Amino acid sequence: MKKRPSKSDSLRGALDLLVLRVLNRGPLHGYAIGRLIREITDDALRIEEGSLYPALYRMERAEWVEASWGKNDNNRRVRIYTLTRNGEQQLAAELAGWESFTQAVRKVVDSV
User: Fold this and answer.
1) What is the dihedral of CA 12, 14, 15, 20, to 10 degrees?
2) In the predicted structure, residue 95 carries a pLDDT above the cut 70
3) pLDDT given for residue 73 in this prediction
4) Which of 15, 17, 48, 73 has the highest CB neighbour number within 10 Å of its CB?
5) What is the pTM of this model?
6) In angstroms, rounded to a whole number, what is the distance separating the alpha carbons of residues 59 and 110?
7) Is pLDDT above 70 for 6?
8) Which pLDDT value is given to residue 20?
9) Domain ranges of the chain
10) pLDDT confidence of 106, banded at 50, 70, 90?
């Protein structure tokens, strides 16, 4: 019998969409991005640091986000991530892809 995909397996495909969507609200540091996703989803989705930071670095290389140094609420130095114009365009593409995907899944779920 095949192993059922974990939440983290399912989350992997949606990580870019989630991070870009949260950053669309405004600049945040990495920990705040993860915390906000967890809060919005009532703890259903937890983005581990081992997934979040590599994704942020990849998005920075793709020029979807910009990073700069700033201070958090505890006056500690942190990297603040801001959505770029390229990131806004990628977010639109991710949202369109997500809508298409969820509609296709809904068709299968509703047909059985």
Assistant:
1) 170
2) yes
3) 87
4) 15
5) 0.85
6) 35
7) no
8) 98
9) 11-111
10) very high
The radius of gyration of the chain's CA atoms, rounded to the nearest angstrom, is: 16
CATH number of 11-111: 1.10.10.10
Identify the residue whose tokens are 């995907």.
101
Reduced to 3 states, what is the DSSP secondary structure of residue 74? coil
C-alpha distances in Å from residue 76, one per residue of 17, 29, 54, 69: 28, 11, 21, 10
Q: What are 52's two structure tokens?
A: 């979040």
Contacts 24+ apart (CB under 8 A), 96-102: 97/17, 98/14, 98/17
For the chain, what's the residue count? 112
Contacts of 12 (CB under 8 A, 6+ apart): 51
CB burial of 38-67 (b: ≥16 within 10 Å; e: otherwise) equals: eeeeeeebebeeebbbebbeebbeeebbeb
Residue 1 is predicted with a pLDDT of: 53
- Structure tokens, 13: 């495909």
Q: What pLDDT digit, counting tens, does each position of 32-47 carry? A: 999 999 999 999 999 9
